[in-house]
Amino acid sequence: MSVESDLLADRRRLKRRISWWRGLAILVIAALAAFLATFDPVEGRFVLHRGDYIAWLDVVGVITEDRRLESAIRDIADDDNAKAVIVYISSPGGSTYGAEQLFVELRRVAERKPVVAVIGTLGASGGYLAALAADRTFARESSIVGSIGVLFQTVEVSRLMDKLGVSAEAITSGPLKAEPSPFKPLSERGRASVQHLVDKAYEWFVGLVASRRGMAVERARELADGRVFHGREAVEAGLIDQIGGDREARDWLAREKGIDRNLPRRRFPAEPVLSDLAEQGARIIGKSVFPERLTLDGLVSLWHPEQPR
User: Taking the complete model, does pTM exceed 0.90, yes or no?
Assistant: First the structure.
């Protein structure tokens, strides 16, 4: 019995010791996570004091309907400590709706605090549309800007189906319900319907360029033929305001809006939390298997040079 009692006592002591170390490990991990949360990747340093700041909003890659980005913009708008917003854009565009959503939300922020845009490598099509929301737009000499316009893409494989001996049937409520379809050539009536849709969105885009850039609609339409411009050409054409980047944007905010250029920056949207990892993984896998432009539905404002045939 004494041996069993000693074994039982030793087991209890070991269990208490393990519980103590486990609790200590949890505290250390929690403290480390809290400390790492103060790291600002834009500033490249730890920011322990969370007072006034300049919000840095990343718009990078293909633009889609992004709830996280929309939520981040609204958080910036509601935070009195956010004194200004620098929108960093490096995007070929994406869905026209997603770009419009981004434009509308940024204009709501601009009603309450200054918004400037800094175009990186690429600010084309829907990416440029997003930049139109800013009070001041900057780009580098080598930045690619423009590609103003809208497109609608579809794939038609009827001849391949004929070779394979495969056919497809569709029972529709109207002659245009199944157009465009990948299983049959686009009819003239269907083509006219889609063209009307594209034209209406294009005129809306051109109108935004004219009103936001302070130019005549005719001039905006001349620039909106799908071409792209280098940064300097974009300044000369009136599509952006100034050659520069983050430093020049801060200088302008200080000079024109009285915003302290030395305020720390805080990046938005925040890095994905653990609960979002599954969604992020699915998105990465999906974009790896399929080209991004093929996963966009509806009207597209996206710059992608065609491959030579």
Answer: no
